[in-house]
Write a structure and sequence with these properties.
Layout (H helix, E strand, L loop, with lengths): L16 H11 L3 E6 L8 E7 L4 E7 L12 H10 L1 H4 L6 E7 L2 E6 L12 H16 L21 H8 L2 H6 L5 H20 L9 E3 L8 E4 L2 E4 L6 E3 L1 H14 L5 H11 L4 H18 L11 H19 L14
Antiparallel strand pairs: 1-2, 2-3, 3-5, 4-5, 6-9, 7-8
Helix pairs in contact: 4-8, 4-9, 5-7, 7-10, 8-9, 8-10, 8-11, 10-11
């Protein structure tokens, strides 16, 4: 049975027998029961598994999709990260037990880090997550990282405001405000020079860098006491920790948690943030959502645009406060 409004995910009965057999071999026990796990924005096969010997494990997999699907699988890259970067990820990432391939499926078997813990967010949970996230970054701050890890992924967020302005597509962002679109255009015209200049700084940020998750949000994490457990590492790279924590902080606010300024302050107590890198990250991530939130729906990812519109609201409101811009009242007219 699928969940209304969520991405379609295959049931355990759809998993090929050779995959199930290999999973049992990797874990040393057959699977007694597998519960489909929803979350995230892709229709990957995800299961919490109860083994016959009483232990638990987690399986994440890809499988053949229709040719017109807008979904792009990247599990092989994530598996490479688990195999080669365990030293940078432990104890924040789940343990990797192995993988299996058969009949167009490819799966990873991981430690089960438990059921969803957020949302709802509380100040205590946000504080624990922020400090544990800072400890994760501090673990690799300025240390040698594999040469093959990309160090320029954050730079892709530098040009969004320039592109929106030069193409005339900033009207698309403003159109999200519907009957207040004219007000939104006026506000964006005022804010644009600030955002463009700050976002461009992403191109100039220099080491020390950290090992970055690059996609930290509630559906990719669990909180165990005060330890943040992070999974879905397919975008992992090296870069400025400010970018990672800005993306995380706005996602917490988007889900009704404490304001991003509070999350940033808790993080900064453990690992001090660099003001220029913080400015650039806030502007760049705001530009990303300004570019994406009004675009047509992506086939196979029914919730992504709605989530991006919510993130646009949280990020632009934060950016306005951070850069001392007029309050963007028009954001109240942006619907999910």
């Amino acid at each position: 049975m699928s969940r209304t409004g969520a991405e379609a995910k295959p049931p355990w009965s759809a998993v090929p027998r050779p995959i199930k057999d290999e999973v049992a071999k990797l874990l040393g026990s057959p699977v007694a029961r597998a519960e489909r796990v929803y979350g995230g924005y892709a229709p990957s096969a995800t299961f919490r598994m109860l083994l016959r010997d009483g232990r638990r494990a987690f399986m994440k997999g890809t499988y053949p999709l229709s040719t017109d699907s807008g979904v792009k699988w990247d599990l092989m890259n994530e598996e490479h990260i688990y195999q080669e970067c365990a030293a940078f990820m432990r104890p924040w990432a789940p343990e990797y037990f192995g993988g299996a391939t058969a009949e167009g499926w490819h799966v990873m078997v991981l430690e089960d880090v438990g059921p969803e813990t957020m949302p709802p967010w509380t100040p205590a949970k946000a504080k624990a997550c922020a400090r544990s996230y800072a400890a994760f970054h501090a673990n690799t701050y300025g240390k040698p990282l594999p040469r093959w890890l990309s160090r320029i992924e954050h730079q892709d967020f530098a040009p969004f405001w320039d592109r929106l302005a030069s193409s005339g597509e900033l009207r698309g962002t403003a159109s999200l405000a519907r009957h207040r679109a004219a007000e939104a255009e006026e506000w964006l015209d005022v804010a644009l020079p600030v955002f463009r200049e700050r976002a461009t700084r992403l191109l100039k940020l220099r080491p020390p860098f950290v090992f970055m998750h690059f996609d930290t949000r509630s559906d990719n994490i669990r909180l165990q006491r005060k330890l943040l457990r992070i999974f879905d590492w397919n975008f992992a790279c090296a870069g400025p920790m400010e970018f990672d924590v800005v993306a995380f902080a706005q996602a917490i606010a988007m889900e009704g948690g404490p304001p991003p300024e509070r999350v940033i302050a808790e993080y900064d107590l453990v690992l001090p943030l660099r003001p220029a890198a913080l400015d650039a990250s806030i502007a760049g991530i705001a530009g990303y959502f300004a570019d994406r939130a009004w675009r047509p729906a992506v086939k196979g990812l029914p919730r992504i645009r709605s989530v991006q519109r919510r993130q646009l609201r949280s990020t632009l409101a934060w950016a306005a406060r951070h850069f001392d811009l007029p309050e963007p009242h028009w954001l109240a007219a942006v619907a999910d």
